[in-house]
């Protein structure tokens, strides 16, 4: 039995209002919000969830709980009817030291329930280290810089149904031990700055993208876990079942190459970079990270319905769009032969079906796109081009997905987001070599049947809703992928693999 830190138990704040709903008061940012939980198929879903700023929780109509192998939507709360009262009763307040992270009291926390005699033991646990932001001394914790996106990851972690807020520390302090017959898999998240992103939420914002809200220093910092971190109790006592999750936001991956070789190659890490190459990472444990949408479209229920019914295939006005610059990396030799992944499209602008060009260009300004917001254009787009830019990844990719368009990607050897056991991107995106940007790809798009388009669009939008729209979903996707590796085995990465080419120059390894 694990008790609350202050030794108290909370009164049950959930009020049953009938067979089908309960009302629940929760506190966030000092305000009381009223949640209504509706029971469907024996499961409770947050229906009237509140939306409050960037970190608000909303229910996605697109989340299909019946396909959810882990029994959670990751989208607020979901619980078996019998255990619903636990949602607020047990640990309604945060038990992590990092007091700057909003704790979602509506999440049904399965470890907490299990240790209080309710429900099944989850197969895996998420823990957060207490070495940096989450250390006991918050004066010190708040002196460590952090990026806004990295804070979002932390929020996704502490609000995962399998997160255990005190396990790591209790183990370190000898208040717990790992039983010899334990089978739990442990995912350790590192509470120090391993991720820096210059372009989110403000593209080109640099210092604007630092988390300065709680007086943290204005400093860009990226750290690696040290050898000492892997001598901690959990790594020692649960060998083979524990992984440290290492995010990396560098446009060029990790510059030291130390994930691949040297002393760090065998550390139990799952390395999750925004922009690294398939050929450089570990095929079993690593996975790509998805860049968030800076300009995020929000589809209306009607627009979502049009995706579900395939009406979007005939209603969307623009067949192919790309409004942006022509920078496709510093790979001039490759460009001289094949052209750039972006620039190769520019000559195919036809002002009727294909709209491609820089935002201020004559061809865009004198087209039907004139005056439309970037998000509006994408919401009316069938295929949204998302070719690699300076780096292999692109923020546009998530923007296209948010708008319900089908992304067309050119990024040779890029490590695609999420484990391939979880997301087969070939079901959604049109993935083509960089050398085929332009005419070759446009022909394929024109020949694709409406039915195939509809299937792809539905799959894409579901992936977006499940794993990309919110940081909670992203963390859930990261963990679900690793759980599939552990339980069902390893699949090969998707994407354009340079190793598949007999002539390496046809595949662009230049990051
Ligand atoms: C959480 O529990 C504490 C008692 O431990 C109680 O005072 C508080 O009102 C509860 N908050 C909510 C939102 O239920
Ligand atoms: C926390 O850290 C601050 C800054 O170093 C220090 O002044 C303070 O004494 C520490 N507090 C505790 C309880 O150790
Ligand atoms: C593990 O072993 C302990 C002690 O031998 C036992 O009480 C417990 O039920 C076992 N747990 C499992 C899951 O087998
Ligand atoms: C790791 O590989 C890179 C190039 O792939 C090389 O430059 C570096 O020296 C290697 N490091 C070690 C420790 O072997
Ligand atoms: C991945 O890393 C593990 C160590 O964590 C190592 O045993 C394995 O050989 C690596 N696999 C590949 C394909 O690099
Ligand atoms: C492009 O199409 C628009 C109508 O959508 C038209 O007004 C404009 O003249 C066309 N531009 C050119 C260069 O043909
Ligand atoms: C584009 O490809 C089609 C089909 O292969 C071909 O007929 C056409 O000439 C090509 N256009 C250009 C501009 O290369
Ligand atoms: C690559 O292999 C294919 C099939 O074996 C062959 O047709 C092609 O000419 C080869 N390309 C190069 C550049 O060697």
TrEMBL record:
InterPro entries with a match to the protein in the record: Exostosin (IPR004263), Exostosin_GT47 (IPR040911)
Residue intervals passing through the bilayer: 37-57
Keywords, in A-Z order: Membrane, Transmembrane, Transmembrane helix
Positions of the Exostosin GT47 domain: 311-445
Native source organism of the sequence: Nitzschia inconspicua
Similarity section: Belongs to the glycosyltransferase 47 family.
Protein name (database record): Exostosin family protein
Molecular function GO labels: glycosyltransferase activity
């Amino acid at each position: 039995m694990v008790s609350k830190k202050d030794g108290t138990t909370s009164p049950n704040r959930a009020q049953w209002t009938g067979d089908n709903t309960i009302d629940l008061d929760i506190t966030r940012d000092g305000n009381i919000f009223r949640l209504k939980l509706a029971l469907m198929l024996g499961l409770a879903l947050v229906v009237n969830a509140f939306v409050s700023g960037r970190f608000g929780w909303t229910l996605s109509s697109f989340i299909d709980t019946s396909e959810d192998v882990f029994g959670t939507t990751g989208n607020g709360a979901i619980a078996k009817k019998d255990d619903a009262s636990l949602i607020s009763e047990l640990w309604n307040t945060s038990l992590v030291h990092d007091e700057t992270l909003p704790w979602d009291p509506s999440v049904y926390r399965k470890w907490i329930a299990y240790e209080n005699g309710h429900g099944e033991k989850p197969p895996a646990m998420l823990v957060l280290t207490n070495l940096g932001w989450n250390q006991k001394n918050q004066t010190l914790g708040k002196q460590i810089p952090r990026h806004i996106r990295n804070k979002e990851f932390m929020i996704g972690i502490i609000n995962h149904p399998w997160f255990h807020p005190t396990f790591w520390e209790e183990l370190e302090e000898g208040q717990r031990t790992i039983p010899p017959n334990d089978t739990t898999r442990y995912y350790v998240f590192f509470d120090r700055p391993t991720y820096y992103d210059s372009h989110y939420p403000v593209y080109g914002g640099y210092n604007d993208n630092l988390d300065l809200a709680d007086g943290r220093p204005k400093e860009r910092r990226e750290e690696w876990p040290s050898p000492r971190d892997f001598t901690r109790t959990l790594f020692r006592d649960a060998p083979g079942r524990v992984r440290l999750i290492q995010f990396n936001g560098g446009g060029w991956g990790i510059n030291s190459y130390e994930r691949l070789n040297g002393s760090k190659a065998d550390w139990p890490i799952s390395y999750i970079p925004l922009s690294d190459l398939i050929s450089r990472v570990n095929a079993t444990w690593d996975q790509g990270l998805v860049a968030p949408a800076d300009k995020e479209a929000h589809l209306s229920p009607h627009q979502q319905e049009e995706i579900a019914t395939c009406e979007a295939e005939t209603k969307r006005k623009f067949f192919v769009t790309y409004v942006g610059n022509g920078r496709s990396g510093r790979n001039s030799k490759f460009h001289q032969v094949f052209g750039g992944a972006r620039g190769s499209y520019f000559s195919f602008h036809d002002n009727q079906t294909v709209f491609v060009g820089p935002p201020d260009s004559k061809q865009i300004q004198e087209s039907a796109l004139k005056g439309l917001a970037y998000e509006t254009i994408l919401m009316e787009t069938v295929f949204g081009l998302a070719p690699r830019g300076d780096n292999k990844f692109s923020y546009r990719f998530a923007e296209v997905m948010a708008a319900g368009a089908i992304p067309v990607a050119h990024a040779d050897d890029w490590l695609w987001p999420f484990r391939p056991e979880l997301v087969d991107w070939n079901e959604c995106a049109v993935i083509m070599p960089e050398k085929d940007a332009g005419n070759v790809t446009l022909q394929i798009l024109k020949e694709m049947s409406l039915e195939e388009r509809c299937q792809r669009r539905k799959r894409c939008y579901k992936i977006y809703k499940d794993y990309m729209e919110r940081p909670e979903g992203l963390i859930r996707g990261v963990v679900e992928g690793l759980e599939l590796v552990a339980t069902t085995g390893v699949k090969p990465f998707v994407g354009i693999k340079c190793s598949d080419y007999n002539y390496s120059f046809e595949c662009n390894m230049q990051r």
